[in-house]
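Report of the visiting student (M.T.), summer placement. My assignment was to run the structure pipeline on a short list of targets and document each run. The first record concerns SAM-dependent methyltransferase TRM5/TYW2-type domain-containing protein.
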Amino acid sequence: MEVPCVRVAREEGEATRRELADADLIDDEYEIAVAEGDLYVPVTDPDAVPAGLDVVSRPVDERETQTTPADLLGFDPSYERLGEAALLDEDDDERAREIADAVLESDLPVDTVLNKASKVKGETRVRDWDLLAGDDTEVVHREYGCEFALDLAAVYFSPRLATERHRVTEQTAPDERVLDMFAGVGPFVIPFAKRGADCVGVDVNPDAIEYLRENARRNGVADHVTAICDDVRDVTSEYNGWADRIVMNLPHSANEFVEAAVAIAGDNCVIHYYDIQHEDDPFGPGERAIREAAEPAYEVTVETQRVVRSYAPHELNVCLDVRLER
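After the run finished, the structure tokens were exported:
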């Protein structure tokens, strides 16, 4: 069967395999192949492979020794992987426990299984979990060479946005000043800082800010990260005109913070504005909100309009990359 693979010279194979593993991109259902001095590493998402790596399609063998939860259950269960945890979204407690048992019995490198017990709620966007296996709700997640410790019961984190975060991070220059208005545990801030940017992360959740500081130390970028526990609107005066780049990843509510973002923007600043809107006009409300707040003091250019994912029937999670030039 032909699958997408990263082709790399054998002498560079181990470093590349580690890079892909850190990004959680290796497709464990297939064997790594060797041919004519090259390694072929199967990947789950060819579009998320870091720039500079060669992606090709070629036949590879399926792994015969990997026992999956589907093998044990007789059906393909739905779950997300986050570090060594499996995250379920099952309404039926008995079915959830059946899946949890199969996940633990399989060959997946998982020791914790959690089932969602509530929707995301409150100002800090956390949810309740049922702990079906494991000691607690704290995990360590690896993404594109960065490592994030977090407690799922205390902070918000979505592994589904890894590719989008990488897309934004790749745009950042080493000498930039970047402010994340809703930083969480640092999934944007930490990779920005690893590229040499001077970063400020703001969040109202004190647990998230503590994890942001820990993750900055864990990734060796503490000197490049300032973590602030506050409503970002209350720190705009301190960072007035400071930022070259701003991340506004608070869908549903980002429009309430546009004036603060414009105040923080420097003379030439890119805003990554995330929104959730109806599919009939997914980008218009965000663009109008930014133009209303920024013009005529700034020239406003929408550089990218991107659908990140489907959020609900007829609703899209989108991003606008908007440049403000004074």
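The longest helix spans residues 93-105. Helices lie at 13-22, 69-73, 93-105, 162-169, 189-194, 206-218, 258-264, 284-294. I thank the supervising group for their guidance throughout the placement.
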